[in-house]
Amino acid sequence: MAVATVLSLLMVSGSAQAAARCVGRTGMLYYDKGYPYSVTLHGFQVTLQTARVGSNGNPNGGGAARAIIHPGSSYRYRAGDIISIDRSISALSPSSNPWSTDDIHRFGGWDYCESTLHSPDSIRTTTVDGYHHAVRVCFRRSGSVQCSNSWYSDAG
After folding, report:
1. For this UniProt entry, which residues form the secretion signal (predicted)?
2. If DSSP states are collapsed to H, E and C, what string results for the chain?
3. pLDDT tens, 106-141?
4. Separation of alpha carbons 131 and 61, rounded Å
5. What's the rounded Cα separation, in Å, for the pair 88 and 81?
6. What is the pTM for the complete model shown?
7. Closest to 132 in 3D by CA, of 101, 100, 88
8. pLDDT for res 127
9. C-alpha distances in angstroms, 135 versus 64, 109, 154, 156?
């Protein structure tokens, strides 16, 4: 399991807009993006997943992405835990290298989709439409938010 050495630690994100980017797509197969997009936050592996559709396994089916606490991370539920996925406000070109949080700030900031966890079984966000937008994972515990500093962008 890879551990991110650079984390963006935020108490409040002034750039974030209302959590209006949740789109709730169903019927897609999701795949872990892996390091550097999936990281250890508050001691748990939080994974960025993107959808693949079609017989050719088209990556990021229409831009669908979600955050999930990896089942192998021995997650221990705590009331008030919140998992989220941030999404750049501006459209960005796909990149084989991750975008940084500084990049996303320069391009207008981000909004987000979050899910308050209610049991050890509710471990993922609703999907966001990440088509031509960069996305990253975050986890809030006891009021403290930790986020990956690596943003993934794929045209779908």
Report:
1. 1-18
2. CCCCCCEEEECCCCCCCCCCCECCCCCCEEEECCCCCCEEECCEEEEEEEEEECCCCEECHHHEEEEEECHHHCCCCCCCCEEEEEEECCCCCCCCCCEEHHHHHHCCCEEEEEEECCCCCCCECCCEECCCCEEEEEEEECCEEEEECEEEECCC
3. 999 999 988 888 776 668 888 888 888 899 999 999
4. 9
5. 23
6. 0.78
7. 88
8. 85
9. 10, 11, 9, 13
26-37: pLDDT as tens digits: 667 888 888 899
Report the candidate in 138, 64, 139, 67 with the shortest Cα–Cα distance to residue 149.
138
The phi and psi torsions of 72 (rounded to 5 degrees) equal: -85, 10
Half-sphere CA count of 11, side-chain side, radius 13 A: 0
- The rounded Cα 90 to chain-centroid distance in angstroms is 16
- Say how far apart CA 62 and CA 51 lie, in whole Å: 8
- The residue among 71, 95, 100, 89 whose CA lies nearest residue 129 is 89
Overall residue count recorded for the chain in this entry: 156
Cis omega (within 30 of 0) on the bond before 59?
no
Amino acid at 12: V
